[in-house]
Fold this sequence. Notes:
Blueprint: H1 3-8, E1 13-17, H2 23-30, E2 35-39, H3 43-50, E3 69-72, E4 81-86, E5 91-92, E6 98-99, H4 101-111, E7 119-122, H5 130-143, E8 152-155, E9 174-176, H6 181-192, E10 199-201, H7 205-236, H8 240-247, H9 269-279, H10 286-311, E11 320-324, H11 339-348, E12 353-357, H12 363-370, E13 382-387, H13 399-403, E14 406-414, E15 427-429
Parallel strand pairs: 1-2, 1-4, 2-3, 4-7, 7-8, 9-10, 11-12, 11-13, 13-14, 14-15
Antiparallel strand pairs: 5-6
Helix pairs in contact: 4-5, 7-9, 7-10, 10-11
Amino acid sequence: MSIYEKLKTKQSALSVTGLGYVGLPLALEFARHFRVIGFDINEERVALMRQGIDPSKELDASAFKGCDITFTTDPTDLHQAHFHIIGVPTDIDDHKVPDLNPLIKASQSVGRALKPGDYVVYESTVYPGCTEEDCLPELEKASGLKGGIDFKYGYSPERIVPGDKVRTLTGILKIVSGNDAEALDEISKVYGEIITAGLHMASSVKVAEAAKVIENTQRDINISLMNELAIIFDRMGIDTREVIEAAGTKWNFHKYYPGLVGGHCISVDPFYLMHKARSLGYEPQVIAAGRRINDYMPHFITKKVVQALIENGRNPGECRVLVMGITFKEDVADIRNSKVVDLIRELEDYSINIDVIDPHASATDVKHEYGIELKQNPEGKYDAIIVAVGHKEYRNLPHESLFKLTTTPGLFFDLKASIQKLDLPTYFRL
């Protein structure tokens, strides 16, 4: 009997290691068809999931109903499974070098649970070759088994879009790969049970890894071009958004918009590809340039804010600025690698007094991660307002409500063009 048939008849279980933005939706969807072991090392998060609560605030309680799933922090529970999926975060360290520690530890935990005939599939974003060169040896060492002989393995990159309620897990075409034809066939059958949009079968694990990492690298580079244009057009006194809309009337122009590029994907994944390229003796040019431009944007915006304050006769050190939004993108609670934090730090370097509000972020998480106190609501009058994240609560916000929060004249900086354009000399948008 094949592994797919064993899962389908629930003679075997499927495990998902790492229950964050990627792992939890995947585990719950599989649990509608198979018996699932959901493993995560964070006890607080697991306790919430047992109550039907998504700690990431992406899924509502109904997503947990009708699911055959056991949430656990005990790695020995992984022994119950014969098909293992690993979807832990892959980040970079302070030197912007890939941090594989979570992936290695997850591989070791799964490796200790491996049995002959098992399958292991990785979903974490990595550089081409990481699965077979870095993870496979850990699986083999921990299990005493040989990959490709005693157990099968593959790679199926995650394509979860945080905050997107339309393009959800099952409706996004999925790339799958395996170490051989048999592995690819079985892995495809397992994922085909939940993915309605279809599967793309990659020719190798490395091809699947490379496909994932360039998805976000391409987006990073495209946004960096728009950010560079925003810097240039600002010197010309041209509205970048109006330029993009005009250019977008041509059928083959692709619309990307300037902004702060943070989060755990677009601003991180290019460093994985650059790391691999450098290990092969090639120094990437375009990818590195795109990263430099996008990382420069908090500094560029800070200069604009400080310049505007001074031009309006104000001492930055005596000014109050309201920053609206601190998550890495609109309508999500995720604050990981938020570039809004970089902007706040740079503004604080000028001794500007900053208040921060965000209807989606957890005040506890923001305080723990960045030492920043979130305000429940604006307090008093501000010399400038920065709409940093385009949350739905801010989109098309009535101008009057903003004017009430500012001194005269109020300075407005709309980094995501969230509000209707203000016809004011003190209004700036990227």
